[in-house]
């Protein structure tokens, strides 16, 4: 797996040098700038929570809840629900911009499609869900984390505040002298790096939720299935395979065989100590290797690396050869049919080629997972996006190959990226 500079906080946290980079400070800035926004948004849940608490107390005490409280509770809940998709518009715009603190991958803005669309699209309600997440979940988590930080600071400061007649409660014990408080202070100092990492984990988790809810690609119009006529394609591929096999067998293979024989005969006439001996040996080996390659092509156009390394190893070999840093993640517990492996290999090869030529990406993630009945191939890049099958034959040809294997190809590539190519190839054991 090729190493690459991290493009988001979750990647940076897995690096050994994380505490010494700028990522922890970016995470801290992300958390601090979340405080005022989350504080304002927390007023909404409080408005709903207050009458709910009053209603709960009335029920526990056996008192009937007043009609005015019931009406108020329902009106407030309905108002918050109706306003949430509208209030989410400016909040989502700010959050998409602010997400750049912990994630260098661009998150394109959601286009305004009218007032009715704010109540009829999944993207709008995901933004509303993030509004509640930021106003309810984030404040609660931040308060808990703040208490932990204060507790650690108290441990560190305990030897300096304890004195004659002064006691300090540290955790479950009471310290009356600096000597008694010193071990707790040492524990507090040792916990500082943990807190430094915890800041990153907290920011990465919040950023992941923001990206998941604010990314507009999962809407049906953005995730398009590129389909072709399977029957026509199977017939066309079979006819083309027979033509290639015939041409190679009748034309190229005899010539290569004759070339190998001529080089072999020439090598016999050259002394071993001659300067031409080594180049002739190399040419002879290359000719034999080319013959082997042609036989493989005739047998089914299957790369040798698939046979030698398996699908996971062959894909990692493609990643090593890519000019763009590629991370490969595989979850393949058993061998797959050759046709499925070959299709998946060429999907990854074509996808990485397209990224290198068109995407201007700084990193690519390739995932291979076997669900038991379907092999899922996902290629995600952080490039400029905007990939469209209608503008070129690369994606269409790839869709043809996938369709011929009875699979399907899904593409999400909004302007500004990221681009996600997902291929599902069914198979049976």
UniProtKB/TrEMBL annotation:
SUPFAM superfamilies named in the record: ATPase domain of HSP90 chaperone/DNA topoisomerase II/histidine kinase
UniProt keyword Transmembrane present: yes
Pfam families documented for this protein: HATPase_c, HisKA_3, Sensor
Enzyme class, UniProt record, top EC level: transferase
Record-listed E.C. numbers: 2.7.13.3
Gene Ontology cellular component list: membrane
GO molecular function, one term: ATP binding
Entries under InterPro entries matching the protein: HATPase_C_sf (IPR036890), HATPase_dom (IPR003594), Put_sensor_dom (IPR025828), Sensor_HK_TwoCompSys (IPR050482), Sig_transdc_His_kin_sub3_dim/P (IPR011712)
Span of domain Histidine kinase/HSP90-like ATPase: 339-429
Key words, A-Z: ATP-binding, Kinase, Membrane, Nucleotide-binding, Phosphoprotein, Transferase, Transmembrane, Transmembrane helix, Two-component regulatory system
Ranges annotated as spanning the membrane: 27-55, 67-92, 140-162, 182-205
Catalytic activity: ATP + protein L-histidine = ADP + protein N-phospho-L-histidine
PANTHER family xrefs: NITRATE/NITRITE SENSOR PROTEIN NARX-RELATED (PTHR24421), NITRATE_NITRITE SENSOR PROTEIN NARQ (PTHR24421:SF10)
Protein name as catalogued: histidine kinase
Species assigned in the record: Micromonospora zingiberis
Lineage: Bacteria, Bacillati, Actinomycetota, Actinomycetes, Micromonosporales
């Amino acid at each position: 797996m090729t190493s690459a500079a991290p493009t988001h906080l979750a990647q940076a946290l897995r690096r050994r040098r994380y505490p010494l980079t700028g990522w922890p400070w970016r995470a801290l800035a992300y958390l601090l700038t979340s405080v005022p926004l989350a504080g304002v948004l927390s007023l909404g849940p409080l408005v709903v929570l207050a009458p709910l608490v009053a209603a709960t107390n009335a029920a526990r005490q056996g008192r009937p809840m007043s009609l005015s409280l019931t009406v108020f509770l329902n009106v407030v809940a309905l108002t918050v629900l109706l306003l949430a998709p509208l209030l989410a518009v400016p909040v989502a715009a700010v959050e998409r911009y602010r997400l750049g603190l912990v994630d260098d991958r661009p998150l394109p803005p959601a286009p305004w499609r009218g007032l009715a669309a704010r109540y009829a699209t999944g993207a709008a309600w995901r933004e509303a869900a993030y509004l509640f997440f930021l106003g309810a979940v984030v404040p609660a988590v931040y308060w808990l984390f703040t208490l932990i930080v204060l507790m650690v600071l108290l441990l560190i400061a305990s030897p300096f505040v304890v004195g004659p007649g002064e006691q300090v409660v540290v955790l479950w014990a009471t310290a009356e002298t600096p000597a008694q408080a010193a071990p707790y202070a040492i524990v507090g100092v040792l916990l500082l790096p943990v807190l430094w990492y915890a800041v990153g984990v907290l920011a990465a988790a919040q950023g992941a939720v923001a990206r998941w809810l604010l990314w507009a690609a999962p809407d049906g119009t953005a995730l398009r299935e590129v389909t072709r006529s399977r029957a026509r394609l199977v017939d066309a591929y079979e006819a083309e395979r027979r033509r290639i096999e015939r041409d190679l067998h009748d034309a190229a293979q005899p010539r290569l065989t004759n070339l190998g024989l001529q080089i072999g005969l020439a090598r016999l006439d050259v002394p071993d100590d001659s300067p031409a001996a080594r180049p002739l040996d190399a040419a002879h080996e290359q000719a034999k290797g080319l013959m082997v390659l042609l036989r493989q092509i005739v047998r089914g156009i299957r790369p040798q690396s698939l046979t030698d390394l398996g699908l996971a190893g062959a894909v990692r070999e493609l990643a090593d050869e890519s000019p763009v840093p590629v991370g490969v993640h595989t979850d393949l517990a058993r061998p797959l049919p050759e046709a499925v492996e070959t299709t998946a290999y060429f999907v990854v090869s074509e996808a990485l080629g397209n990224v290198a030529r068109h995407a201007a990406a700084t990193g690519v993630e390739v995932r291979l997972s076997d669900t038991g009945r379907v092999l899922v191939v996902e290629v995600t890049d952080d490039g400029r996006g905007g990939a469209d099958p209608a503008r070129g034959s690369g994606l269409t040809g790839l869709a043809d190959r996938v369709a011929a294997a009875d699979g399907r190809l899904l593409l999400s590539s909004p302007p500004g990226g990221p681009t996600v190519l997902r291929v599902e190839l069914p198979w049976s054991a």
